[in-house]
Fold:
Amino acid sequence: MILPITAFGHPILKKRAEDVSKDEPNLKEFVDNMFETMLHASGVGLAAPQVNKSLRIFVVDTQLSIEGEDKSTAFKQAFINPEILDYDGEEEFYNEGCLSVPDIHEDVARPSKVLIRYFDMEGTKHEEWFDGFPARVIQHEYDHLEGKTFVDHLTNLRKIVLKRRLNDISKGAVRTDYKMIFPSQKKNFR
Ligand code: NI
Structure:
């Protein structure tokens, strides 16, 4: 099932997401829906707060990814209760976008390598270093679980420049090929 995506300004995107418990009901179905929603919206990553659920889950699928990206590191993975343990490498800029912040792309600096601990759908614990594009997507999605978006990484000047467009997104004055939930309609906020 394709789920609607929460828009910038929605309170769930500003809240630290909650741990997934061992007996979380319908977890498999929910994660399948996240993958389906992400694919439908042509995203390479999606975090649970973006589908209006405050849970520490994000999914990544870089297999269909953006042109020009190195396909050799392409992967598809659900990250349950992830924890970033370490960073390495130089800070690099990359022009990021976000399904919750449609039509805005901005250069964001992040370390090129990240060590993350997470559980997969089988409940197996992993501790893995990622680098390059996967490390970029992982850090972007992890931010969503901490109540942050890429906008929080921008300079005050960029935030001022983008202010009106960000307000428009929050008000629903934006066109997307996928359904969105705007801050004024937060009935399902958990
Ligand atoms: Ni995002």
Remarks:
- The mean pLDDT is 93.
- The pocket of nickel (II) ion is lined by residues 98, 100, 140, 144 (CB under 6 Å).
- The CA atoms of residues 27 and 190 lie 16 Å apart.
- The chain has three helices and seven strands.
